[in-house]
Amino acid sequence: MKKNIVDLQKRKEHFQWVADSLEGKENELYVERDWYDNPTLISKEDAKKEVEQIRQ
User: Fold this and answer.
1) Would you say which domain of life the source belongs to (predicted)?
2) In the chain, where the domains are located
């Protein structure tokens, strides 16, 4: 369980960083490589939604 909390905290910090990095930039996306090694585009709104979901 402790590992899950640490993983969630790292995930929250990562997506908060993505949201902060994209702040003030219009129509820019962050390219994420997930563990399947497939590129994923993440918008600022997607990153903020992810942070909110993790907080709940």
Assistant:
1) Bacteria
2) 2-55
